[in-house]
Amino acid sequence: MPYKVKIKGIEEDRIARSKGRSLSVSFKQSVELARALRGKQLLEAYAFLDAVAAMKKAVPYRRYNSNIPHRKGRVGPGRFPVKTALAFKKVLRNAEVNALSKGLDNTSLVIQHIAADKGASNFKPGRHRGRRGKSTHLEIVLAEVISGKKGKKSDKKAKGKGAPKKPSKKTSKKQPEGQKEGKSQETKKGEEKKVEDKKTKKEASTKSSSTTSKHAEGKDKQNKRGDEEASKENKSDKKSNQKSDTKADAKSSVNSDMKTSKKPNKTSSQSKKEEKKEESK
Q: Is residue 30 part of a domain?
């Protein structure tokens, strides 16, 4: 059966193919395992398939993942398709042998293409009669990746940095003199506008600073006046308090004198009354 897949950008001499027909494995498991292997190097793919067969590493399920538990190692929903992994390993080994027969290096091989297609579902014989079996077609394409090409690109970039730059097409085109003069005038006008804007900003800032200083001086004068008025009020209050104290002292002295003058009168009247009483007796 001829191969359908054509790899663009890679020569046919650096490509090895292999195909498995009607493999008795699950189609859904094959799709998930093929997605996990796509783009891996050959040796990495072998290590991954061995780990899956030993149930040490799970295959992440991205499409057919309903009612599938999550696994360890940030895999998410996944399973251990042991039978599918062993079948994939056989087909991958056939592709490696085809590559070696072409003289390719197995350490530089990469799984460029891998696809699982649904096969025929035939009836099973024996005690399983009446049931349809599962089958899958598998196709693998290995390509040799040359590491020297990347180095050549980097060398070109390094050479290009030191070399003088060629004049671009845009700069090489000559502009008419009228356009040049118009652009120069526009640039001059733009610079003049910038200078004027800076001057206006400076003037506005100086005005704002002067107004703020005037406000501050006015506030200081008001505060000084308030302090002087408060001191005058305090002095007047002290004087009034002193006058009231002197008046109170004078009143208290007069009252004391009056009391002392009344006391002897009372005693003389009492003495007269006593004399009258004695005479009447």
A: yes
**Could you report how far apart the first and last alpha carbons of the chain are, in Å?**
176
Residue 229 belongs to what domain range? 197-236
Phi, psi at 16, each rounded to 5°: -130, 140
pLDDT the model gives residue 91: 96
Short-list 118, 116, 93, CA closest to 42: 93
Q: How many domains does the chain have?
A: 2
Would residue 251 count as lying in a domain? no
Q: What is the pTM for the complete model shown?
A: 0.52
Angstrom CA distances, 29 to 45, 61, 165, stand at 16, 8, 55
Find the helix packing angle between 82-101 and 27-37, rounded to 10°: 50
Query: pLDDT by residue (tens digit) across 233-253?
Result: 777 777 777 767 666 766 676
Which of 116, 117, 118, 99 has the alpha carbon at shortest distance from 108? 99
Q: Is residue 263 part of a domain?
A: no
Alpha carbons 224 and 226: distance in angstroms, whole number: 5
Cα-to-chain-centroid distance, residue 155: 37
CATH classification of the domain holding 53: 3.90.470.10
* Alpha-carbon distances of 149 from 145, 146, 152, 153, 154, rounded to whole Å: 9, 6, 5, 6, 9
Structure tokens given for 148:
């020297």
Alpha carbon 165 to its chain's center: 39
Q: Which residue has the tokens 């309903």?
A: 66
CB 140 within 8 A of CB 92: yes
